[in-house]
Amino acid sequence: MESSGAAAWTTQMDRITVLEQDRSLLNLMTIIRDLNTNDRDFSAAVEKVVRRLITAALGHVPAEEYTVTTPINKPYTGIRFTKGVCGVSILRAGACMEQALRDTWTGPLSFGKLLIQRDEETSIAKIYYSKLPAGITDDIVLLLEPMLATGGSVIKAVENLTSNGVPEESIVLVNVVSSQKGLDVVSGRFPGLKVVAAAVDAELTAQNYISPGLGDFGDRYYGTTH
C-alpha cells in the first residue's frame, strides 16, 4: 500500500492530509511511478490525481451557512465560501496543477508564480523569480508543488509568501509525492502550514531524490526526458 506513514500524518491537528489510498488512486499512482509509462499517459494520470488533491485542498477554504430558494420555492441551506483562492505555482512542475484549480474552484481566483531552483550538489534552493497578485494576503493560497523531497524549495516559497504578508495558516501545500523527511522539515519550520498529498515515501536517495518516487516529474510531464 502507498504511504505507510499516512495515518500518522492525518492526526496532526488536521494540518497534513494524505488522500485515501483507494484502488482508483493506487492504480493512478502505479501508472505514474512506472518507468515504462509514456509521457502522455503519465500526464493524463497526474491530472486525475491533481483534481483529487485540489478538491481536498479546497476543503481548507473557510465557509459560512447560506440559504437559497430552490425552483419549487423551498429553502435550502448550504454554504458559501468566504475567501478567494490564489494558486501559486513553483515552476515549472507546479504549473501543471493550475488547470485543475481553474476547473474546480468556483469563486474569486488568481495565480502567482515562483521560480525556485535547487543546486544539485548542495541541494540549497534559491528564488530566481517571484510574481504575486496584489490581493494575495486576503486569500487562501494553494502552493502548487508536485514533489517534496528535502523541503528546501517549499521552505523558500513559504518564506517568500509570508514575507509578502500571507499568513502561514492561509497556505496549503498541494503535493503529489512527499518524502517523510521533507514533511518533517517543512512542518517543523512552519507549524501552521497545511499539506495535502497523494503519497508519502519513506526514503531519500543519497542524491536527495524521493524513493521509490517517480523520477523527474517535470521531464516526464512535459515530455523533455532524454
UniProtKB/TrEMBL annotation:
This entry's Gene Ontology molecular function terms read: GTP binding; uracil phosphoribosyltransferase activity
Pfam families listed in its UniProt record: UPRTase
| Stored Gene3D superfamilies | 3.40.50.2020
Example GO BP = pyrimidine-containing compound salvage
Q: Which residues form the Phosphoribosyltransferase domain?
A: 22-224
Per its UniProt record, what CDD domains does this chain match?
PRTases_typeI (cd06223)
Superkingdom: Eukaryota
Per UniProt, the enzyme's principal EC class comes to: transferase
Alphabetical list of SUPFAM superfamilies matching this protein: PRTase-like (SSF53271)
Q: What is its EC number?
A: 2.4.2.9
So which cofactors does this thing need?
Mg(2+)
Q: In which pathway does it act?
A: Pyrimidine metabolism; UMP biosynthesis via salvage pathway; UMP from uracil: step 1/1
Keywords attached to this Swiss-Prot or TrEMBL record, sorted alphabetically, are: Allosteric enzyme, Glycosyltransferase, GTP-binding, Nucleotide-binding, Transferase
Query: Quick check: keyword ATP-binding in the entry?
Result: no
Which NCBIfam families does the entry mention?
Answer: PRK00129.1
Identify its protein family.
Answer: Belongs to the UPRTase family.
Descriptive protein name: uracil phosphoribosyltransferase
